[in-house]
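Suppose you are handed a protein chain with no further information: no name, no annotation, nothing but its sequence. What can you learn? This example shows the usual starting point.
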Amino acid sequence: MYNLSSHFLPIEDDLLAENWQSSQIGHCIKKHTSNEFPEIVNAKIAFFSVAECEGTENKCSDFSEIRKEFYNLHFEDLPALVDLGSLQLMPTKKESFKQIEKVCSTLLENNILPMLIGGGQDISYAIYKAYASIGKIISFTSVDNTFDLGAEEDKIHSHSYLSKMISYQPNHLFNYCNIGYQSYFESPAAIEMLDKIHFDTYRLGFVKANMFEVEPLMRNTDFLSFDISAISNAYAPANVYASPNGLDGAESCSVMRYAGLSDKVTFCSIFEYNKSLDNFGQTAKLIAQMFWYFLDGYKQRKNELNPNLNECTKYTVSFDDGVNEVVFYKSNKTGRWWIGVPFSTSDKNKKDNYFVACSYRDYEQSNQGEPAERWIKTYQKLN
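A reasonable first move is to predict its three-dimensional structure. Written in structure tokens, the prediction is:
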């Protein structure tokens, strides 16, 4: 494996002086210290911080409070987890992004799930390029109160990185999904544009009223990028972009648990933490608990990336025209739902199915004569 140790700074000695109980994460996790770099060959998850914040007003190079809170949490049967420390930044942003890309691609190639706490959310662009560098086409989900499209001429910034991701060639972005945007922060033109290219956007009000719908969204996600500005200021004040409205603490943890449960999620990241605004360490505590919930979900993964058709109940919904139909599959093992979306194979006379995670709500909607929106959008992408 590519040598990662030279790219990271060790964890602060102050954090290592704690006397943790045997069930606390700080006792169980293998850490990068001034004397030792953790062996990662057998690791399942690699936790690390990236203090790159040139593209955001949230200036923070210190994530020690988050680590402290995270290490103090109790966790039974912790997955094989290592803390690589802090990624060493380069003299320029371009060089730092290249460093991030190299480190992330190395971890992904070795089937190690990166769990990252970062500065600006534009770091997501470097992570996307890491997937591209290993030839992986992905579905990207951002939990954010805005889309971060920016203008075409903008330099890469935490509020403009998505347009760079969409325009990057060769394209490796199968789908973009936003969870929790707030309408008054986005122009109708931006909402319409993302809909026209068959991307998925879910308003904050819908998400709060239908939290269970986040579960299939995460089962369709490879890379999760969580901007804490999606969380209400009352629960996460350590962010200059924080708003009175947003997810609450429990909802944020639910999103992370759904992400952990998803067999498809291979990257989990949280961005835009600003320690100077963190009154009483409230946001550090919440972020630590969000990562705890991700690990709790991860521990309960069911190895069910796609439906095992031999262990599913099949439901066929025919529409009034007598021609079109949609096929649903419900796992007898977990109760999860999928839709089969037909697409042409290299043999033009043969069709295959692309499986899209969905919910019972999609099945009900189709039974009422209205095909599920996620089926329509996926079909338009594939055909």
